[in-house]
Amino acid sequence: MPASCCERKQVKVELKLKIMKHLQKLRWLLLLLLLIGIAQSCEKDEIIVSPVADTTETKDDTPPNTGSDNDNPEPTPDPEPTPDPDSSDGEAETDITLYTLEGDNLKKVRDYEVSGSALELQQDVAKHEEVWNLVKKIIPSNYLAKISDFMIYEGGQSGIAGYVFNTKEDLTKWRLGLAIDYAYEGGFNSDGQFAYTVIHEFGHILTLDNTQLDSSIGEASCQNYFVGEGCAKKEAYINELFSNHWSDIWSEYNNIDEEDFSALDAFYEKYKDRFVTPYSATNPAEDIAEVFATFVTRSNTFQVGEKAEAKMQSLQNKNELVALKDFILQNTRSSKRRAFFSKGGSWKHGKHVGKSKKGCTHRRTTS
Ligand SMILES: [Zn+2]
After folding, report:
1. In terms of DSSP bridges, do strands 147-154 and 226-227 run parallel, antiparallel, or are they unpaired?
2. Sequential DSSP letters for 134-147
3. Which of 289, 230, 231, 282 shows the shortest CA–CA distance to 47?
4. Is pLDDT of 319 > 90?
5. Comparing C-alpha atoms, which of 248, 138, 241 is closest to residue 189?
């Protein structure tokens, strides 16, 4: 018996309801799949690769500063990768406040749970701003765009004045970390030491980012100098530096045990003619950062060896680096501070050879 018009309508309505129910189930399933997809892609994008950090002057066997220890586990469930740039020596630095960038300005992501001196530094937000204002005098807007986040930390006994590491696997985005206690040692940016640190760290981003390195090429297939972060492009600053100034001493350098500080010092002494500072001899990544920082800040009276001078002169032919030098000097010359920079060679964090061969960890100096 054929269904009546009303029955057909009812059947249709029931059918529609069934379909909608199915669709609703499907929607939840799709939503779930989408969430899983996002979670996976975030993991891929946020891979943290080799940190590059910088060491400091002698601290000898100073006991750990327990007042600023952060023994409390991070309360937030967010995955927050923490670099461990100096895991083998001394105390780790204490993370204080993490910022992201909104345009050229800071936007707080989180305050870490800290106590003692680190808490005081956390609460003194004016200092965070003062530090950032100095960063902006050194790093132009279009380069600030490469910085995904900015960590204020307490260096304490770690000896780490600053660090950078890529927050995107493709090297387009970087974290900049700066030790705020070191920034105020002897007064803010005393003797220009802190400004030099910022220039040095900027030098790392300039020479290790995606314009310079290809992170998709592994060491085995890299035809040029391989940095931990990726394979240097042929025209990369670091590749030129390596070809001209490291390739002939590379096997000798690689035969040194990275824990053998006296052998590293001897290596520097033997080849000091080609290095702008002892810290330059740490590895090619530190060398290019030191050459750039010295290129920007050197005074006329700071003399380096003939080969080191050749490294500096080669930067004189790089339009990008010359423009950056001009930007930094123009911005800082207008400053009322007399001693805005460490003059070349006087950066106290650069007086010793670091221990890393990969640009990832640094030596706490002992003499
Ligand atoms: Zn460095």
Report:
1. unpaired
2. HHHHHS-HHHHTTE
3. 230
4. yes
5. 138
CA distances to 131, 271, 276, 307 from 280, in Å:
25, 11, 6, 13
Q: How far is the CA of 201 from the centre of ligand 1 (A)?
A: 6
If you average pLDDT over every residue of the chain, what do you get?
A: 79
Residue 25 CA to ligand 1 centre (angstroms):
54
Instruction: Give the distance (Å) from ligand 1 centre to CA of residue 232.
Output: 17
Alpha-carbon distance values, 239 to 109, 199, 213, 226, 242 (Å): 36, 20, 9, 9, 5
Task: Check residue 4 and report its DSSP letter.
Answer: P
Tens-place pLDDT, residues 237-291:
999 999 999 999 999 999 999 888 899 999 999 999 999 999 999 999 999 999 9
Residue 2: C-alpha distances to residues 8, 11, 250 (Å): 9, 12, 91
Q: What is the per-residue burial (b if ≥16 Cβ within 10 Å, else e) of 37-70? A: eeeeeeeeeeeebbbbbbbbeebeeeeebeebbb
Which alpha helices (H) appear in 108-192, and where do they start and end? 116-123, 125-138, 141-144, 180-183
DSSP state at residue 231? E
- Residues 116-144: pLDDT tens digits? 999 999 999 999 999 999 999 999 999 99
Q: How far is the CA of 341 from the centre of ligand 1 (A)?
A: 17
> Measuring CA to CA, which residue among 326, 359, 87 is closest to residue 205?
359
326's CB contacts (< 8 A; 6+ apart) are: none
Burial of 118 from C-beta contacts in 10 A (0-12 / 13-18 / 19+) = buried
CB 168 within 8 A of CB 148: yes
- 208 CA from centroid of ligand 1 (Å): 11
Using DSSP, state whether 149 is helix, strand or coil.
strand
Distance CA 4, CA 353 (A): 93
Question: What was the pLDDT predicted at 42?
Answer: 32
